[in-house]
Each structure stands twice: as structure tokens, then as C-alpha cells.
């Protein structure tokens, strides 16, 4: 069974949204699309027996956490003290924490907040083990894990490959310390990036081959994130089967912590045209910034979809009059960075100052990675509710910009 085979809630058609009525710039989350995703994730959790928690590094829109709880998603994974505090205050469920390294300053508070605590190395485990043991002796219920690196991944972009050469993330089999396992009751790995369940199945084969001898001593295994189960065509049945078989084979509790799967295709970044200039090509300047508001466009890199716009001719030297009636524009932001450009798109009519330009699929990862670079206006955050009502849930002004500086 794939995503398209499941009976999921209907979503709001983009054609019915009055984009001009939404302030610009704004990240807009569509409640109907989020409900669709969380309904599917809840189905996987129920049928597989795994615990699925939300990874804040990919989706941390806390105004929607009440909706997630409606579907039985009651935990979160944090990568820092700030995210752990947010999980405790707003998610109101289990707090899972993993970071590549913990500082002496932050660790006591992290230890206080965490229900599951994963160490990236045995040296960090040895450093903080006395504090963990003291907390347990005082009555704290705490699961402790070690992250392993199976040295296997199917990630095309090196920047996002946690199992690449010389990775700092996780313990390889060569460096694994069986003599330090006392007090550790779980293993954690994370090697996927927006992958299907067949990749997970192949990854588990390597994990079991490298670390299977230690699994009988464990109570739980965290499969990390990157399980893009809400993408069209994803093999849901395979995921459920793989998780069930692993649980039964090893007698462990399984945890999945996707981020993208929650926010996948759930909303947009609404922008507007501030100016149109010409330098060989027509260039539209928008009230957003690629570097400040869509950094993955430069980091991955990837090309976001713009509603109502198409790709340019493959021959970049063709004039606009040769594009079959389309109107090509380079789309850029308003910072002083020369490379603050999304790319070239073809529109069905000329762009005018004030026109809305709507970027698709801008909720997962994009929102959590924004900055105040150049002090440019930061997009609002809003929700398009199922009844068609638009709600602005956050607006950013000078005080937020100033608070980041000193």
C-alpha cells in the first residue's frame, strides 16, 4: 500500500485560496494538509507498533502541537537545550534529546528535561555518566542511548549524509565500546534523508550485521528520521512490515523521529513583487530572501516550485518572445547578497509590482532555518484553517531582530 491508496482527509485546493488576502511575506500552513499527514503518520504508528515522535529540527511549529496530540503524536526529539525546553513546554509529552556534543553548562538542564537521552560518543557518555547515575539514584526515570554509525547511507548530497567518510555523527563498529554499555539501554542511528522504506530495510541489514550482537541487551532502538512516509508513492506497507519484524526479531521498542514527513507539502511561502528590473533578462525582486528565508535552495541546492509558474526553456539564450507566449523572470530576494536568487521561472503573464508569488512546500525545515540577515522583514507565520479562515499566529518586527544582536 502506498500513500495514494490510503483514505486520508481532503485538502484545501490551492485554486480556492485568496492569496491577495494573505499578508506578504508569510509562511502559511494549511491545516487540512497537516491533518492529512498526521493522520497517515498515526496510521503507521498504530499498525507498526513503533513510537513516532516529531523531530523539531524539521518541524517545530508549536502552535500546531495540539493538533498532533489529537492523533496520538505525543513526543518530540530535540537537538539542543532550547528545543528540549520547547518540547517540555509545548509538546507536553516525552522529551527525547540527541546532540553531537553536550556542554557542561547545558547538560544539567537537559538531564532534567529528558526522558530519552542519546550520546554521540562514548567519551561524552563517560563525561556525563556520573550526573546520569546520580539522577537515576534520585528517582529519575531515564532511558540512555548511544548513537551508532553503520557506515552505510543512500544520501546523494554529501552535506546531508551522516554516514559519509570521517563523519562526526555516531560511533562506528571499530570504535564501539562494549565495556561501557552498562547504564545504556538503547541504540540510535540516523542515516536517511527523505527516503522510502526500501532504503530503511537495506539500512537495517547493515545495522544488524554491525551491531546485532548488542541488540539483545537493548530495550529500544531509535531509527532516526528521514522516513518520508507522507510523500506520494511511499511504500507504507513495507515500512509497517519492516518495523514489526525488527521489533519481533529483537524484542525491542522502536522509535521513529521524522521531521519532513510532518510538514511535507503542508503549506507555502507567500511573497510579493517589489520591483522588476532588466539586465539582459527580466528580474523580479520579491519581499523575501533566499539566503535568509529559504537557505536550502542554496545549501542543497534545490529548486522550489512556484504555483502557476513553469520551467524556462532549456536554451537559456532564447528570448522571451521565443518561449511560446510565456514570460520568464529571474526571481531574487532583497538582501545585498549577489547570489540571493532562486532561479528562472516562466509565468503566463508579465509580473507587476504587488503581484503575489507563492512558493510551494515551504513548511518543513525551511521555517526553522530562517535568519534575520540584512535585517530584512521576516515572514509572518499563519494558519489557513479547515473552514477557510486565515489566522496570523506570529509576526516579526524590529524587537525580534534587535534581540538577536547586542
TrEMBL record:
GO terms for molecular function: diaminopimelate decarboxylase activity. Its cofactor is pyridoxal 5'-phosphate. It comes from the Bacteria. Coiled coil: none annotated. Substrate binds at residue 296. It is an enzyme of class 4 (lyase). Its EC number is 4.1.1.96. GO terms for biological process: lysine biosynthetic process via diaminopimelate; nor-spermidine biosynthetic process; spermidine biosynthetic process. The keyword Lyase applies. CDD domains: PLPDE_III_CANSDC. Residues 175-362 form the Orn/DAP/Arg decarboxylase 2 C-terminal domain. The keyword Ligase does not apply. Keywords: Decarboxylase, Lyase, Pyridoxal phosphate, Spermidine biosynthesis. InterPro entries: Ala_racemase/Decarboxylase_C, De-COase2_C, Nsp_de-COase, PLP-binding_barrel. This is Carboxynorspermidine decarboxylase. It comes from Deinococcus terrestris.
Amino acid at each position: 500500500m502506498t500513500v495514494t491508496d490510503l483514505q486520508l482527509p481532503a485538502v484545501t485546493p490551492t485554486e480556492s485560496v485568496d492569496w491577495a488576502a494573505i499578508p506578504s511575506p508569510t509562511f502559511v500552513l494549511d491545516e487540512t494538509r497537516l491533518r492529512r499527514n498526521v493522520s497517515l503518520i498515526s496510521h503507521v504508528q498504530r499498525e507498526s507498533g513503533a513510537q513516532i515522535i516529531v523531530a523539531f529540527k524539521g518541524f517545530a511549529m508549536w502552535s500546531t502541537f495540539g493538533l498532533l496530540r489529537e492523533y496520538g503524536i505525543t513526543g518530540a526529539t530535540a537537538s539542543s537545550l532550547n528545543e528540549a525546553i520547547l518540547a517540555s513546554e509545548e509538546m507536553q509529552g516525552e522529551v527525547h534529546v540527541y546532540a553531537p556534543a553536550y556542554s557542561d553548562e547545558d547538560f544539567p538542564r537537559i538531564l532534567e528535561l529528558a526522558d530519552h537521552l542519546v550520546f554521540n560518543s562514548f567519551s561524552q557518555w563517560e563525561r556525563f555518566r556520573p550526573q546520569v547515575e546520580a539522577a537515576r539514584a534520585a528517582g529519575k526515570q531515564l532511558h540512555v542511548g548511544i548513537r551508532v554509525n553503520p557506515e552505510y547511507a543512500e544520501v546523494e548530497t554529501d552535506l546531508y549524509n551522516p554516514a559519509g567518510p570521517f563523519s562526526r555523527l555516531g560511533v562506528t563498529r571499530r570504535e564501539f565500546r562494549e565495556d561501557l554499555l552498562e547504564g545504556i539501554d538503547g541504540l540510535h542511528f540516523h542515516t536517511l534523508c527523505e527516503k522510502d522504506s526500501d532504503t530503511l530495510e537495506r539500512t537495517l541489514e547493515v545495522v544488524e550485521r554491525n551491531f546485532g550482537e548488542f541488540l539483545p541487551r537493548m530495550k529500544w532502538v531509535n531509527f532516526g528520521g528521514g522516513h518520508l512516509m507522507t510523500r506520494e508513492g511511499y511504500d507504507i506497507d513495507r515500512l509497517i512490515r519492516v518495523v514489526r519484524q525488527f521489533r519481533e526479531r529483537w524484542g525491542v521498542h522502536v522509535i521513529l523521529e521524522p521531521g519532513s514527513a510532518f510538514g511535507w507539502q503542508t503549506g507555502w511561502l507567500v511573497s510579493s513583487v517589489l520591483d522588476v528590473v532588466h539586465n539582459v533578462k527580466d528580474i523580479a525582486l520579491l519581499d523575501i530572501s533566499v539566503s535568509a528565508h529559504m537557505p536550502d535552495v542554496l545549501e542543497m541546492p534545490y529548486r522550489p516550485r512556484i504555483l502557476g509558474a513553469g520551467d524556462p526553456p532549456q536554451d537559456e539564450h532564447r528570448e522571451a518572445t521565443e518561449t511560446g507566449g510565456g514570460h520568464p523572470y529571474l526571481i531574487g530576494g532583497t538582501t545585498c547578497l549577489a547570489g540571493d536568487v532562486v532561479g528562472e521561472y516562466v509565468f503566463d503573464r508579465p509580473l507587476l509590482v504587488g503581484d503575489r508569488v507563492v512558493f510551494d512546500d515551504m513548511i518543513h525545515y525551511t521555517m526553522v532555518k530562517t535568519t534575520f540577515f540584512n535585517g530584512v522583514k521576516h515572514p509572518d507565520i499563519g494558519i489557513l484553517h479547515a473552514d477557510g479562515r486565515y489566522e496570523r499566529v506570529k509576526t516579526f518586527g524590529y524587537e525580534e531582530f534587535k534581540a538577536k544582536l547586542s
